[in-house]
Amino acid sequence: MAASNSKERGAAIDIKAATKRYGNFTALDDVSLHIEPGEFMTLLGPSGSGKTTTLNVVAGFTDLTSGDLAVGGKSIVALPAHKRNIGVVFQHYALFPHMTVGKNVAYPLTLRGMDKQARDRHVARALDMVKMADFAHRYPAELSGGQQQRVALARAIVFDPPLLLMDEPLGALDKKLREWLQLEIKRIHRELGTTFVYVTHDQEEALVLSDRIAVFNQGRIEQVGTGRQLYDEPATLFVAKFIGESTSLRGDAQTSGGETSLTIAGQKVVAGGKLAGGQKPVVLLRPEKLSLARTNTPAAAGQNSLTGQVSEAIYLGSGSKYQVTLGDGSVAIVRATLEATPFSIGDAVDLRWSVVDAKLLADDDRADMTMT
Amino acid sequence: MRLAPFRILLGLFCLLVAVWLVMPTLVIIPMSFNEKKSLAFPPSGFSWQWYENFFTNPDWLTSFFNSLRVAGLVAVAATLIGTLAALGLSRMKHSGAGLLRAILITPMIVPGVVLAIGIYAVYLDYHLVGTTTGFVIAHTMLAIPFVIIAVSASLEVFDVRLETAAASLGADRFTAFRTVTLPLIAPGILSGLLFAFVTSFDEIIVALFITSPYLKTLPVQIFTSITRDADPTVTAVGTIIFIATTLVISAGLIISSKSTRS
């Protein structure tokens, strides 16, 4: 629990070709992931995407069908959960209801045969770190959900594990409390230097917390990267749609000279580069890259333009948000700054964007299916 | 106000049912202080002689201690076996678990006389009639279902995920059971233990079949005494047992209400 100078306390994790099958169902399909020592890695994805299975495999609660798993360079596949020395925080807190907060946090130390004096010291420090020092004599049932989760966190870090796993730890809490605890978790991660692996389905939470994010879908990892990389350079349509808001445009594609263009409701737009053969292209646009202009005003060089009609206009204080219905019935989401010309519902507009700001991706119907 | 006559009728009816349920128990208390050697009700006079008889007559004391010994052994054996069975059943994912549970519960459903005949027939061959071993085996079989039901009820509300949490903190399966599961299902085990004890202590049907002049339990002694010579000592015994069980059950209720803090 020493807080200072602790960047070396975290262990590197290597998940190699991990596969888990339940009968015909493949929960994990050849997943490989390297996590740096001390890194905050978030496993992000919809339910059933394999993120929790991955966490359970690392914790030792679930066996792999095939593949390998190493912590700090040593394979731990053969070790049972109780010998792995990995801290786990559960969504349902899992505090022992018959023990006080102090006894709960002391539990892993008692199992490790630590003497009472050292134990008391460690417990006090762990409870201090999660700001629950005054609650040592309370029972879990006397605490709120947020307090219980902080105690659970103290219990999971008190024995100095080189790796801490968290399975949607804030999932049962309300939004305000969740946002505050996210910052607390970030602070604790910084102070401990332990490797954190965090599972969530909430992309905002992932962006707030993580050094890097692994996006899971249907038992596979779609992409691993920083929040910025995932937002700006999504590798797949699924990642693009899961992280942040976006507009996707589809149309008849023509490729000539290494450049793809789309025809959408009779209007032609330049889509950018070129996809590998046989893939149906989609143009992906982030709301802040789009702008609106009055119809029949000239577009700048290198800009695309599509006509549409404002179907929703929302004032957000820091700017405005519009929904624009295009000729083919699809809806674009536009974020405008305060300086931009305001539009109202029903206005005919031109939707504009720079060719370089568009992202050309392969179409994938899984991306829409899982967006619920 | 139109409801008033109906409410009075309802009240009277409830009172009647209450009296009906409690009467047999309350009748024996005054009778145990009867002055005459008779089971007539209402009793006449007042004396402690039947209590005196119970505590001085070796027939009564021996049968009382026989019952205590058998019930004590049964409580331990049935609690051990029944708790293990309940744990196993609760972890079984197989669809056969329901069937297995039903089989384990059958001693509670099958009429006592039927069981008694079967037990008697087997015991004759193995010379178990009139032995402590024989009584303990038969009564443990009768008591196991009560333990299974009591322990299963507390396992029903036990969160198995706590064992997973204990494992992540470094506890092997046995340690996790000892430090987490056991304390949390202890009220169920304790109430199973009490049920098992009581089941054996007042069991009469099987006991009548497998008893012998050398080993009589208290219910057998009561039965033979009352059929042979209308001895009012039975009412004194009844009163003692009534008060003792009331105390034990109250204690059990207090323990279980304290442990359900969460």
Task: Based on the model shown, name its key terms.
heterodimer; A: 372 residues; alpha+beta; Rossmann fold; OB fold (Dihydrolipoamide Acetyltransferase, E2P); 2 domains; six-stranded mixed β-sheet; 34% strand; disordered N terminus; B: 262 residues; mainly alpha; MetI-like fold; 11 helices; globular
Question: What layout of secondary structure does this protein have?
Answer:
The complex is a heterodimer of chains A (372) and B (262).
Chain A: E1 13-22, E2 25-35, E3 40-44, H1 51-59, E4 66-71, E5 74-75, E6 87-89, H2 101-111, H3 116-129, H4 145-157, E7 163-167, H5 175-192, E8 195-200, H6 203-209, E9 212-217, E10 220-225, H7 227-232, H8 237-242, E11 247-249, E12 252-256, E13 259-264, E14 267-272, E15 281-285, E16 291-294, E17 303-315, E18 320-326, E19 331-336, E20 348-354, E21 359-362, H9 365-369
Parallel strand pairs in A: 3-8, 3-9, 6-7, 7-8
Antiparallel strand pairs in A: 1-2, 1-4, 4-5, 9-10, 11-15, 12-13, 13-14, 15-21, 16-20, 17-18, 17-20, 18-19
Helix pairs in contact in A: 2-3, 2-4, 3-4
Chain B: H1 4-31, H2 49-56, H3 58-91, H4 96-109, H5 112-126, H6 132-156, H7 161-168, H8 173-201, H9 205-210, H10 218-229, H11 233-259
Helix pairs in contact in B: 1-11, 2-3, 2-11, 3-6, 3-8, 3-10, 4-6, 6-8, 7-8, 8-11
What does this structure look like?
The complex is a heterodimer of chains A (about 375) and B (about 260). With about 375 residues, chain A is an alpha+beta fold. Helix content of chain A is about 25%, strand content about 35%. Chain A contains 9 helices and 21 strands. Residues about 1-5 of chain A have low confidence and may be disordered. Chain A starts with 12 loop residues before the first strand and ends with a helix. In chain A, helix 2 (about 100-110) packs parallel to helix 4 (about 145-155) and helix 3 (about 115-130) packs across helix 4. A 6-stranded mixed beta sheet of chain A has the order 6-7-8-3-9-10, with helices on both faces. A 5-stranded antiparallel beta sheet of chain A has the order 16-20-17-18-19, with no helix packed on it. In chain A, strands 2-1-4-5 form a 4-stranded antiparallel beta sheet, with helices on one face. Chain A folds into 2 domains: about 15-240, 3-Layer(aba) Sandwich (Rossmann fold); about 245-370, OB fold (Dihydrolipoamide Acetyltransferase, E2P) (Beta Barrel). Chain B has about 260 residues and is mostly helical. Chain B has helices spanning about 5-30, 50-55, 60-90, 95-110, 110-125, 130-155, 160-170, 175-200, 205-210, 220-230, 235-260. Chain B has one domain: MetI-like (MetI-like fold), CATH 1.10.3720.10. In chain B, helix 3 packs across helix 10 (about 220-230) and helix 8 packs antiparallel against helix 11. The chains are: A alpha+beta (about 375), B mainly alpha (about 260). The interface of A and B includes residues 82 and 108 of A.
